[in-house]
Every structure is written in structure tokens, then in C-alpha cells.
Amino acid sequence: PGPCDPEDLIDGIIFAANYLGSTQLLSDKTPSKNVRMMQAQEAVSRIKAPEGESQPMTEVDLFISTQRIKVLNADTQETMMDHPLRTISYIADIGNIVVLMARRRMPRSNSQDNVEASHPSQDGKRQYKMICHVFESEDAQLIAQSIGQAFSVAYQEFLRANGINPEDLSQKEYSDLLNTQDMYNDDLIHFSKSENCKD
Q: A single GO CC term, please (predicted)?
């Protein structure tokens, strides 16, 4: 369920937005929902100009599909960012602001641990580099819902491609499968099945 026709998400839909900027954060691999929200607010506070000051921004087209999220300059149609959907780990709407968080891609090595940029933190846990993009749009909530729905549709397509009918799965089997799929990390549960949020 979501605001879009699933077919449209497979082709891709476009929202108009203003791009305010990006910042980088270090994060645990699977932080709780509350921590994610704090990270989103931290990104906004770093990027958003204080009340009364002019906010530098670029008009963009936000392209959302079951494959990727792309940000195009609205005037030149040049691609400013292009994230495969599976690298997106969190999306938040805060009023008319949308925060999109993606894991930084690192050169793949043989060891699975090194696939993403990571640094050990003081308590020995690995910290992952997240890039946070901040946008402003009247449709902030709709954009966040559409990205969540793109995950659901992508996952159902993925199941069908593997010969599984998503309707045949019980809620538990669906989340178990989500947990075991490498291609779709644990974060996906946050989007497609909100009642399963792991706090």
C-alpha cells in the first residue's frame, strides 16, 4: 500500500523538490528507529540555514523507482546523484523537509566486512559512513511514502523473480525472508513493514 501505482514505480516517478545540501554521518550498521530520526534531525540542523538567513538551494527533479533514486538538476537535467535503491537505508520527512540517507559505496573486496566504508568506534562496534541528502518539498510526506512503497514493490518483484508469490507468504515468513536476503538489508523492514521495526 502506498500513494503510487506499483507499475508507475517500476518505470519511475518524478517529484519536484529543492535540494538544500548533503552531509556525512557515522552510524552503527542497524541503529534503532529513534537513533535514525535523531540522525535525520542532525543532518537537517547542519544543512538548513537559520531562520531569517537565505537558504542556498537547487531546484531538482527527484526520480524514484524500484531500481534507484536519482536527483537531476531541474534546469539542465544533469544527474547530481544516483543511488541504487538497496543502498538507501533511511528516509524521513520532517515537515516539508525530506532526509534521504544512503550508505557510502566502497570498492568491493573479498572480505564481506569491507564492502561498506567502516571505522571501529570506541566501543569496538563498526561505524558506517552515511551520506545524508536534505530536500525541501511541499510533497515531503508523499515523497517519503513513495520511496517506502518503491522498496515494497522492489521486494515483491524480487520474490516473484525467484518464483515466490508474495501473497502466499505469511507476515512472519515475509519478514524472515527480508532478514535473510543479502541484496535487501535489514533496514528494508523499516520501510515495507513498519510494524516490524526493530528497536
A: dendritic spine
CB-based contacts of 49: which residues, under 8 Å, 6+ apart?
55, 56
- Is there a contact between 154 and 183 (Cβ–Cβ < 8 Å)? no
Highest-confidence range of 73-87, 108-122, 141-155, 175-189, by mean pLDDT? Answer: 73-87
Domain boundaries, the chain: 6-196
| Residues 6+ away with beta carbon under 8 Å from 70 | 62, 63, 79, 81, 82, 83
Residue range 129-171, pLDDT digits in tens: 889 999 999 999 999 999 988 988 888 888 888 888 877 776 6
pTM listed for this prediction: 0.75
Coil, strand or helix: which one is 181?
A: coil
| Beta carbons of 33 and 41 less than 8 angstroms apart | no
User: Sign of torsion, CA 32 147 179 169?
Assistant: positive
Asked if residue 147 lies in contact with residue 188, where contact means CB atoms within 8 angstroms, the answer is no
| Residue 172 burial (C-beta neighbours within 10 Å; 0-12, 13-18, 19+) | exposed
Q: Look at domain 6-196 and name its CATH class.
A: mainly beta
